[in-house]
Every structure is written in C-alpha cells, then in structure tokens.
Amino acid sequence: MPDPNLAAVRARCTRALTYHGPSHESPAAMLREVTALVSDDLAPDNYGEGDLIAGFEREMADLLGKEAAVFLPTGTMAQQIALRIWADRKGPRHVAFHPRCHLELHEQKGYQVLHGLHGVLVGSQHGLLALEDLRTVGDPLSALLLELPQRGIGGQLPTWEELTAIVSWARERGIALHLDGARLWESAPYYGRSLAEISGLFDSVYVSFYKGLGAIAGCVLAGPASFIAETRVWQRRHGGTVVHLFPYVLSAKAALARRLGRMQAYADRARAIAARLRAVPGIEIVPETPQVNMMHLYLQGPKERLEEAALAVAQETGVWMFGKLQPGPIPSRSLFELTVGDAAMELEDDEIAGLFEALFVKVGIAAE
Amino acid sequence: MPDPNLAAVRARCTRALTYHGPSHESPAAMLREVTALVSDDLAPDNYGEGDLIAGFEREMADLLGKEAAVFLPTGTMAQQIALRIWADRKGPRHVAFHPRCHLELHEQKGYQVLHGLHGVLVGSQHGLLALEDLRTVGDPLSALLLELPQRGIGGQLPTWEELTAIVSWARERGIALHLDGARLWESAPYYGRSLAEISGLFDSVYVSFYKGLGAIAGCVLAGPASFIAETRVWQRRHGGTVVHLFPYVLSAKAALARRLGRMQAYADRARAIAARLRAVPGIEIVPETPQVNMMHLYLQGPKERLEEAALAVAQETGVWMFGKLQPGPIPSRSLFELTVGDAAMELEDDEIAGLFEALFVKVGIAAE
Lengths: 368, 368
Description:
Two copies of one chain form a homodimer. The first copy, chain A, contains 17 helices and 13 strands. The first copy, chain A, has helices spanning 4-12, 22-25, 27-37, 51-63, 75-90, 102-105, 110-113, 131-134, 160-172, 184-191, 195-199, 225-238, 246-259, 263-277, 303-317, 342-345, 349-363, and strands spanning 15-16, 68-72, 94-97, 118-121, 143-147, 176-181, 204-208, 219-223, 283-286, 294-300, 319-320, 326-327, 333-339. In chain A, a hairpin with a 7-residue loop joins strand 9 and strand 10. In chain A, helix 10 (184-191) crosses helix 14 and helix 15 packs across helix 17 (349-363). The interface between A and B is large, with 62 and 62 residues.
C-alpha cells in the first residue's frame, strides 16, 4: 500500500527526475489530453472492433513492418500469448529468455501456471544474453524472447552484429523469435535503424505505450496475420477483450505523436547526465555509458536512510527524486532506475548532480 | 468488422431504444464525464494500488457486504479467477453453471484452456437453472455459478425461495457459490432486497460497471479477504494488473452515482414497454413480463430484411433500434435484446411500439 506521507510530498513536487514529471503524470492531465483529442462523432470501439482501434492497429503494424497488430491492455497478456502461440505451433513447451525477463520475475509465473510453458533461463543475471549462452541450451525450444533494451541491467543492448548472430542461430533451428520491445522506441536511436528494421529480425513483437512514451496504459502485439488472429482468441480467454479500450488507444496515439521523435534527445541527455553523475562520489552507473534513455544508479548508503533523504530533498527543492529504492546486489548499495523523459529534460545536469550531492550529505556519505 | 454504412446511420441518430443512447455513449461524452470528475491533485493508481482504486474497492466491498473487493478490467477475467480459486481450495476440477453461462459461450473456453477446469452444464437452454436440475449432477463440484438475472433467457430471475433452496443445497455439499452479477444492480428491485443481502447468499460475487450502469468498462470481484488476496495474484497472471485503471474507476464511480438509483424505474418501464409491445403483431417477448430492465424480443421476419428495415427506420426517425440481430431458435424469428436505460426512458411507449410497427410494415409482415 502507498505511504501517505510519501504521496503527499510527491503531490507537492512540481518537477521530477524520472519519466515525464508531475505536470503530465496526473490523471487530470492525462485525461485532459485524451479528451482534447476526441471528436464528438468518434464511435467507441466494441470488444476490439471499430475504426479507432482498427486504424491504430494498422498504423502500428505498418510502423513495425508486420502484417497485423492487436491492441492489448498489458504486456503481461501480450507476451504470454505470443509464447503460447509459438509453442503450440512449434511443439516444444520450452521457451527461452534472460533471467531478468518480465515473464520470469513479474508475472507470478503466468506462463507456467496458465500456459504450461517451461522457461529456460539463458545468460547471467548481470549481463546480456549472448550467443555463447544459447549454445549451452539442451532443451528443444519453441521460442526465444529477447528484450531490447534489457531493462533489468540498466537498459543494455547487444551490438547489431551480436543481435543478428543470435537471430541467425534461432532461425537455423526453427525457433520462433519474439521481441520484448517494452522500450523498443528507446532502442532505435542506438542502432540508427528504423523500428521496422529492428522488428524485422523477429517473428512477433510487443511494444508498450506507457514507460518511455508516457501514455496511460496499453500495448500492441504485432506479427503475421494468422498469428494476430490467434492472439485475438487468446485475448478473449485472458479477459483482455475489454468492451471499450478507447481511453488507452487515444492516449497511445497522443503519446506517440508527442514523444516518439524525442527518443534520440532523451538518450543523448541520458549520456550527458551519466557523464556528470560519474563525478558524484557514491554513485555507480550501469551501464557506465547509457545506450538508451535509462540507466541504473547504484547509490551508496542504507536504503531507508537514502529514501528518507530523498523525501527531504523533495521537500526542500520541489523535485521528486524517488520514493522507494530497490535493494541492490550488496547491502551497501541500493538501486534507483533513472529513465530520462520530459522530466529530466527540464533540469540542468548540475542541478541533477546537486540533488544527489544533497542526498549523500543527508545520509552522511559526503561532507557538506 | 463493423459495417461502415451501419456506423454512419447510427452516428446520425439522436435517440435510441436500448441502453443509454448516443448522447451518453460516445467516447467524447464518456471522457468528458470522467474528466469533469477528476481533481488536479488526484494521484494515479499504480498496478492496482493507490487511494482512488483502493477507496473504490472498499466502497464496493461494503455495498456488496463482502470483506474485500478488487477492480478488474473484465468479467471474463474475474469469473475464471473466482472459479479457479474455489476449485484449488475445494479440490474437484468440476464447476457447474447454466448452459447459457458467459464462461461457456463467450470466453473461448478460457476456463478449460487456461485453468484446466471442467464445466458441468446444469439446466436447459431456455429455462432457469433449478434445484431439481442440480439433483441430477453426478460429478463432484467445487463451485456453482449462478447468474442473476440470466441474460441468455431475457433476464429471468428465480424466486427468492428457489434461490435460497439452491444455495442451501450447495452449502450442504460444501460447494462454493459464485454470483455472476453482471446485472446484479438490475436484480435488486425485483427481490426488494439490498445488494448485500443478495450477495450474502454467495461466497464471491462479480459485478459489472458497463451494461446497465453505462460506465466505460470494468468490474469488481468481491469476497473474503483471503480470496481477494489470491485474486490479485491471478490478476497479475492474466495480465489484468494494468498500470493505470483510473479512466475505468472514475467512470464506474460516475455511473454508479448517476444510475444505481434508477434501476427500479428502468424495470418498471421495461414492464410498461412489454405490455404495450404485446399489442404489436410479430413480437414475442421473453419473459412475458420482464423481471428486470431487460427483455428478449423475438421478431417475426427474415433476419437480413429486419436489419435493413431497422436501418431505414433509423434514417427516417433518428431513433437507433438495432444493427445486427441474433438468429432466433427458429428461422422465422430473430432476437433483439432490449435493455431499458436512459435511452428508452426518453421515448413514449406508443413511440416505441410505432418503431416496431414501421419495421414490420417495411418487411411486409403487417399492413400499412
């Protein structure tokens, strides 16, 4: 349950470090944005049908270079369905992914419990899944899921050469390739390639509209037309065929129009911020040079004291840093995931560094 | 896919027969309603947590007389989860429901394919599930689902005596009772009992916020606290833990405030309309006297010609009757489900009868 004190302090902040900031992230702001977009004669979608949703799905399929696409409420639903379809088509119940994969860590093992699939974890907790890791897999695989970028390790991306080598390895073995593109929009600038070119390496692709794009919620799964037709059957089984999804669809359209073109700027800014933060004692950055618009900051100091300090900094400066940190791999470090969006774009590098310096002064790590 | 001609005619209609009418049912109208409700300092829900959603779940639990409740995107998700939890607790994989149950007909057999449950169909297609039908069940049951009212047969309700006898039968056998209350709001006036009193017969209850209440989407599953805690785990597995559900939650609050108090009036009006329509040749009404705010109208004439005629009536009168009919049990009859909401409340009984008379003239059933 949310901490009321934390929520109250956050509500009084006018700026923030991560994502798009309080002026965009309130329900009032997000609802006003979609309400302004909607014309009086727009008809609602009905259980997945209608011009609005079908038109948006068509746009997304084209953008991703796929035959078809379907709008779904969550990535959890999209990706379990994708792997289930590939497993049913290919035969084996084994599907492979990185140990920090969302399906393995954040979905209460839905892929196992609902779909009877077996996860094969490939690669190490702290590094990218590599071709050499795949060579050690003994189980027959239906599908291989790759997450671009790999969020759990600070948003890292394989080189294009490594990526295409992995893809070739899977193709040669008849293994379906699924792209967890929760942050695919953020990856394109790094590769200097179009979304369709990156998606083209994969049989199916999931993309999300919140996170970097900042929509209310929702995602798209794209792939061959027959695959998307099957997805719609599974969508109904999962309870994802919501009578009206228009608030999410409208919000996704608005978010794409507003932020897809900013991804290069966010990533450039992430690298500049990282360069500045490397000069602040008590912070270790993963990856050292961000590849996309995110990075993991391992902060020195006891987790609870850092959290209290961030609250104090927020009260003093009006800038929201973070509420709860994640425990780090060693007791002396806690993890803050910094995603550069509209919020950080409004702050100076020195101002951001100053927030962390103030934080460490409060926990007694650095001298004032 | 929607018929563009049909959509265009519908868009030009200013009134309607069923539900709440074009002035309420456009995305623009629904979004304006929720946007007007939201205060600038309201914080968003996050993956099912936050004051807005928790407060609404508390209200719904209280209204339904249950320990706890959880807001979910769809009834499909809610009810599969409910039956799965009861099956896991009780042991048998068999769960019983009416042959017109939503789980059996409209969910692509998710309860079987995702949850490994076996459906036992109890009662006949055209009548209510009765105590005597239950006595013929040979399989051991974990749960019995009752739908109040039974939508597939025109919204019929068992008498309170029959209902409590069924409940006692299940209780004596240790079978969990789940209420499909998609239209529970609509049932309370018939029984002259509170929602909590009706829900009190059941271990778990699902209620919907669209349909009779006219919200954008969403539902609540209510029951014992431990059951709801388990539901949240399954919600995540299903992909129902949407990052932000606030558009739906706000809309549900607005719809409850606006329409819960109108259910008696809707039902009274349904009975008056049925009484008037009985005088129109070519219509058979199920049930003859509506018990809630809905009824099934079996219309004489070929389905396609009736549909064309309704389109012509809509163009001439500006009142939307229906788009597509459901095929009836015999070729000479097609089914139109009439749900009385704000839309029908704005029409006179004679005006409604006149629409059907005009319809039959066009298909050549009645003389002009």
